[in-house]
Amino acid sequence: MRAAVLHETGQDKLEVLDDVEAVGFGPGRVRIRIRATGLCHSDLSAMNGVLPQPAPFVPGHEGAGEIVEVGDGVSHLKPGDRVVVCWLPPCGACPACKRGQSQLCLAGFMNAGTPNFKRPGGDVFGFAGTGTFAEEVVVDAGCAVPMPEDVPFDIAALIGCGVTTGLGAAINTAQVRAGSSVAVIGCGGVGISAIQGARLQGAAEIVAVDPVPGRREAALRFGATKAVGPDELPDAKQQITAGEGFDYVFEVVGRSATARTAYENTRRGGTLVIVGAGAMDDNFQLNMFELFFDEKRILPSLYGGGDVLRSYERTVALWRAGRIDLEGLITHRVPLAEINEALDQMRTGTALRTCIEL
Hints:
Number of helices: 11
Mean pLDDT: 96
Distance between the termini: 11 Å
Structural class: alpha/beta
Radius of gyration: 20 Å
Largest sheet: 7 strands, mixed
Low-confidence stretches: none
Oligomer: single chain
Helix content: 25-40%
């Protein structure tokens, strides 16, 4: 089958090969025919080494498709079922799951070090234990979450990561209050979803911050009340909050420099939400006095900061009701053969989300 492979960490292009085989099928596992997958910035971060991932590997973790085959012991799925790939499936039995923090379940990470594919030359891993830039993938049955028939594959794919992450940051993690002021730094697919979440929660002012003009224009369509470049943020802070700072600031870039900017633009007693996935050696620094004196809440948000499966259901309900726009997030579509074009679209900021169709 065909799959896009990164041979070595640090390479900036993928090679689309037709000699890749999905492996690991057996009891408790399922084989999925991928129909659509989104390109998330985390895929780029794994490619350049910001996020740890053994190589060679097939990127992609935001996918949807159909069940081809189910292993022994899998009773809730059957061939032909439409599913979304969940890269961080809750096991339901660990301490984190029992506490109601299933987004912190580590069971899914245990698969990240096991090869999902093989080629004549040897084993190939799947990013985050999945690897959706492939025509087929074999995963634990818990990674395959049923999707209703009326949800198109491209929409389902977005729900698998970016939309769930952004919406959840505003709804689950921050619990944005009605009438509040919000700033979102970084307005790709996840940042736009955070903007939609803040709008759903009733935020009065939502400032989108991004260096790319096209993304700023898009943010206004999705619910931002103002869109500015990074150097315009101080003026927006002064105009909207009289210099006090925003009630909520979302950092959706994953860098210590933007996290520091987000902290400085959060009002005293306000909430800073860290959504971007950054590098292990990129340290975010605060002095002990400001940490004590400002009393700002710093809340990391992993995968939307809540029950992932419930978040999927909520997103589908909101989409059906017309309360959120998911179709508009997909600004580009490419076949798998043109995956490197999609990477360039992500790097230059010309795409909110590119859908790779298989």
